[in-house]
Write a structure and sequence with these properties.
- The protein is an alpha/beta fold.
- The chain has one domain: Rossmann fold (3-Layer(aba) Sandwich).
- 44% of the residues lie in helices and 16% in strands.
- Strand 3 (72-77), helix 3 (84-98) and strand 4 form a beta-alpha-beta unit.
Length: 142
């Protein structure tokens, strides 16, 4: 992601963290969502990281936030439900990375969870799948 220095009045960074994947396209999606989050949160510096399997790591993500001037890093698990990764692994890794920087505070948000906006995305994906099936029926469906 293109780096931009934080405005002097704002010292917050957002670090989106997913699990990480062996599939390049899956990892690239987090970079795309980070760009969208940056548009929604113009007063914060936005980075992304993968918990494992691919770079940037959480450690590298925290480093990038600190390099941009952040003194507060809000780590957002890009996961649907609370589980070991969002409640234990990600907070532990982010806290350890930030501990190497005096004056840097880490806050870990809840995962995406239940939200009507996510329900709308699911409904839209169902409509898209049904439309695609109508346009391209499988042989056994005809």
């Amino acid at each position: 992601m293109e780096r931009s220095p934080l405005r002097p009045a704002f010292r917050r960074a957002i670090l989106l963290v997913d699990h990480g994947s062996t599939h390049r396209a899956a990892n690239e999606m987090l970079a795309d969502i980070a760009r969208l989050v940056a548009l929604e949160a113009p007063d914060a510096h936005v980075e992304f990281a993968h918990m494992e399997l691919e770079a940037p790591s959480i450690d590298q993500g925290v480093e990038a936030c600190v390099a941009a001037g952040a003194t507060e890093i809000v780590v957002c698990p890009y996961l649907l439900a609370p589980g070991r990764h969002s409640t234990s692994d990600i907070p532990r890794l982010a806290t350890a990375a930030a501990a190497r920087h005096a004056g840097v505070r880490v806050i870990v948000s809840e995962p995406l969870g239940i939200d009507a906006r996510l329900a709308a995305v699911v409904a839209r994906r169902v409509d898209e799948a049904c439309e695609a099936a109508r346009e391209h029926p499988r042989m056994e469906d005809t």
